[in-house]
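Bumping with the actual sequence this time:
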Amino acid sequence: MPNALTITEAHKKLKAKKISSEELTRSCIKQIEAVDDKLNAVVYRNFEKALEEAKKVDKEGTFDHPLKGIPYLAKDVYCEKGIPTTGCSNVLRNKDYVPPFDSTTTKRLKEAGAISIGKTNTDEFTMGASTESSCYGVSTCPWDTSRVAGGSSGGSAAAVAADECIFALGTDTGGSIRQPAGFCGCVGLRSTYGRTSRYGVMSMASSLDTIGSLAKSVEDIALLLSAIAGKDPLDATTGDRAVPDYLAGLTGDIKGMTVGIPKEYFPDELDSEVHESIKNAVKTLKKLGVKTKEISLPHTKYAVPTYYVVVPSEISSNMARYDGIRYGHTAEAGDLIEYYFNARSEGFGDEVKRRIMIGTYALSAGYYDAYYRQAQKVRTLIKQDFEKAFEEVDVIVTPVSPTPAFKIGAHTDDPVAMYLEDVFSVSQALAGIPSLSVPCGFSKNKLPIALQIMGPQWGEERVLNVGYSFQKAMWPEGVPKPEIA
């Protein structure tokens, strides 16, 4: 089926006229219509417009860019001109918010000829690790629909794994691309902070949010990064650095590299099947000629508490714009204060309210020094841990998540347990470094397990080449596909 192709495979077929963009797009649409009632991955369908675009591409007949004519899905926090975008929150859904502009990322994809076919599910304003806080309900794992697809980019991960699209866009603040990619058995990259533009993407925590993609191969991720990365005058946090040809950097040669294995990421509580899969992945890397070295990242134990002070503080600021006056949910009230109270109480879900309250408390005059300032100091120490480690090793490998995909509802009544799901994925965000999630095995229940590969700031080429070499060696016939019951 055409929808099962990777970007590189689809591009070759399009260029050789073996398939058309319309056929490829219809194949993805057909798959969404066949399986998405079980997955709840796609929350808005832009099929009619997508097919019009595909026909235009076919009429032109020149597939001069690898993304031309390739259908994709975007996480429902990416603004696309004329396309409803809700952040999976009733604050925007209740008023059918339609952006009058494109995000830089979707604009660059559009210029390359890629075709947006819809929006994917996410935790409300990306706040969560399971999509259970979405106003549209939870997305399920294609490998076992009684389990979550992960979060917050769970809809994008489920859609890619289930071949509902050729690739999907996600965002990663503290693991929101890597964890769902790991749960669903696809590939996902968190790039260096500032490598990709955040313009036109709804913010959660502005100093940690990164823009990225989920795909079926590391090769595709490299291709996509080359297309969307780079300085953006509309986002002052983007780095003024040249964008390399990431695809050309996939040499497959990693012989002589040193791989760091941090002891802090392998606690006694780590799921035994996850531990075994990571050990086997390291053996595969050794066969490819790398050397391994045990290292220490001593401030790892402070990463989760640091993250959950910094992030709610920035959320408290970013969520202030959703007041129901300029746009968003409106409410009945007797005065302005009551109006704000009613509009935000009715529009926001529990997790958003919880994080706003924590962040407002941490930023208040009496507690700023005790919480937010201290968290920023620890954040610097975590960053320095990585800088020191990368003086000794080329990349660092760890699990992505302490367990495979968990059951829907497992952490609903315990937000702290949900936060601890991020234990292996928040340090990289605090340090601003790139990190890749690649499938490395399966549990006895046939649930995917993923390897995390980290590199220094701006070290995407190195990370992607290691991931590419590993994926080729680990899955020479391609990563297995789920059978959706």
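The tokens above came from a reply further down the thread. The CA atoms of residues 391 and 456 lie 9 Å apart.
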